[in-house]
Design goal:
heterodimer; A: 435 residues; alpha+beta; Cytochrome Bc1 Complex, Chain A, domain 1; 7-stranded mixed beta sheet; 17 helices; globular; B: 503 residues; alpha/beta; 6-stranded mixed beta sheet
Amino acid sequence: MKLGASLCLLSSLAAAANPLPLPMRVEKLDNGFTVALVRLGPSGTVGIYTLVRVGSRNEVEPGHTGFAHLFEHIMFRGTKRFPAAVQQELIQRLGYDDNAWTSEDNTVYTPFGPGAGLARILEREADRMRNLEYSRDDFKTETKAVLGEYNKSYSDPSMKMEELLLEKAFSRHTYRHSVIGFLEDIKKMPLRYDYSLRFFRKYYVPDNCILFVVGDFDEEAVLAQVRALYGPWKGKVHTPKIPDEPPPADEQRVTLPWPNPTQVRIMIGYRTPSGYRESATQTLLSGYLFGPVSRLHKDLVLDRQLVERIEPWFEPHRDARLFHFVIALKRDDAADAVLAALDAEVERLRSGTVDERLFADVQSNLRTGLLLGLDTPARVGEALAWHASPRGDPDGLGRHVEALGALSPTDLAAFARDHLVKTGRTIVTLAPRAP
Amino acid sequence: MTWRVLLLCLAAGCAAPRSRARAPRAALPSPVQLVKLQPSTGPGVVVKLVFRSGSIDDPPGREGLTALAARLMAEGGTANVTAERLQELLYPLAAEIDVHSEKEVTVFEGRAHHDHLDRFLPILLDVVLRPRLDAKDLERLRGDAISDLEKRLRVADDEALGKEALEALLFEGHPYGHPVVGTSSGLRAITMEDVRVHIGRVFGQRRLTIGIGGAYPPELPEHLLRMLATLPEGDVLSREPPAPAENKTRVLLIEQENIATALSLGFAYDLRRGQPGFFPLALAVSALGEHRQFHGRLFVELRAKRGLNYGDYAYAEHFAQEGWTRFPRTGTPRRRQHMSLWIRPVEHANRLFALRAALFELDRFAKEGLSAEELDRTREFLLGYTRLFEQTDSRRLGYALDDLFYGTPPHLEALRASLPAIGLESVQAAIRQHVDPRRARIVIVTKDAAALRDALQKGDPSPIKYPTPKAQDVIERDRAIAAFPLGFAPDEIRLVRSEELFR
């Protein structure tokens, strides 16, 4: 199947500018494993991005948060064929950057390096997906590294603020906990080796994965190798019973005391739906409400100087989640004035008043920014994997771009009317110790 | 001033300059130099205006002036447009003007789609030729800088604090001795007149190098030269900073309310790109701990075998990460360098063991160097991995501009060309010459620092307990680590509260 046309939808967004040539060839193997090949110019490098559609969303058992992220670590512990030391040497000798990320909906493995190493890296990727093997002791040691990751993030209060925001915004859905998991669960991880084996078998299966190969390579040779390596892989993905989240009843506000004298921050999340159109709307809304030419930025950052910065945190998700953002205050006593300004701006939008020039500027920024930003195999691989995650469509990036281009100012107002409502809002305010 | 232009053609098809027989002095940017990459086919154009001006140019009592002035230029509007209007012009184009100040350089980087170049260039040029210098924007950006220093660095980013404090310790009393962002008192003392005078001094022709990359039109270089000819001459380049004096303090303990201990250690040395021994040492340090990779010796020993923390790395020169990548940022060249180790936060209970483990590995590195096998695979690694450093026009241009600073042939090409000839002997010699663990200075950001100070002074063994059995070789080495001699005299340990730093 050729999907080149869909990614070239970027061209329709790019107005008269150059279309972005991202011809994608997709093949689905009999076992449900999907491979998507995107050949770029002669960079001599290639990104091998494996999207596994498992994230903290899948962690349905109470007390067992953080396991999807734990596997982002464990997957580097090796297999019989590629034990950790062999794997490390292979990566090193091939000159690869070897890493991974985990989110609420996905875990993505991201080796990126010289094209000459592609065949060997594919062998290693397929082998660890199919034959991961780790001892109880290695497992325990790696859980301590996860604790280390939690610890290294702790001095910035953002992590704790988000933990609190999610706990308040969701009462049942697994989006209630953060990707790294609750600290008490991380501390208990060393005791849960057997659980980890079961977790792995449920989600590291062929029909739950999409492999993106992006860059400078021989398409036919890669396809043949992928069929041989991944074709015999067996297994069907487990469907977790994720509790339905009831509609929000009321606005929730909570204060987080903080022992160090950092700046006052406000983290806000509105409960919002998922889907290509809904995600595109929230992407645009982030720029419209909080971008550097937004009315709020001009008022709060440039003019009244109550706020240092506003950071939109929205990302597309599989299920309904949050339109959320963080406001870092410049004046510690400005929280009420800032919230009043936010409410006024949201109300303006909900009433149907949309600044059409600003809307057009945001749309223009997004499409040109995308054209400029996809300039390496790694960046293309990241974008493809991220946008494929919510629906399992390898061409999710194309769908996202298509949805962005189809939006009008009235869509923005309608979305705000339906979803930027106080009853669906959670606010966490950081209260740092005074200097 | 007469514009004599040195054109450096940097891309496939252009012969690389020959390596020089002797170590070059860092090159001076006068006459104004232009570095242009071969035009590429992508949609973007990148222009970097590099001034050889950084925090070493901050006047005493005005620490932070260079960085603040540069931000005011880049974000505060121009004679023609306000700060607000500046954003309104750039944003729809997805065009960006970033500025980054460092110890010795400040880089204004403009990026735009080639279709928008006609609209973008006049704005970029106005930023450096006709900055607006509005008092309201100065207050806004000063407030941001003070907040960055006092409310983020000091109290909300222990790892960054440890690194910044380590540099301040290594270079105390030296032009590198304060953070680029400034100090609390320095930032508060800056006036608009200071800014105006300083811009005239340090952002003039005499310190400027122009860099061009991406899909630019043939006339762009000449156009930029012509337009920037109206820039005032400004001051000549600051003199080469001297070697820093050895700080009497060997351990700086920073009291912080936190849940884990952050550690940084290192020492200043007289080694930089272009000097004999740099490539062998860079190779050795990569083997010790390549940034954010899984195969470095420190990572394997401290994290993979012992689960002490999230990661452990080593650096042969000042290092800053490029965005969310694992690659070094360009545009941070320095004539005075230091080697450092980054030990990511460890549980408080293990802090003394972790410090000893880092010192043990540094000591082993200094005494034993690399094995032949480590040398061989690190050589292969760097041959491939460094290709990833030059994937975008902006980064290729950044490296070319840094080469000019150091007066070297293209750094990455030269590194790769040198690798096959680097043998164990040259690696061990470079380590012997440049790595002396006794010179290491240590910064520890931790809770109850007084207890750690007492333990450091006593020097008693600090064994570790694991939740899981360990291999015999790990257990045996742990015994040596736990008893690793520290030898800190009481007056070599200093304890401060985080809020006392950079005042």
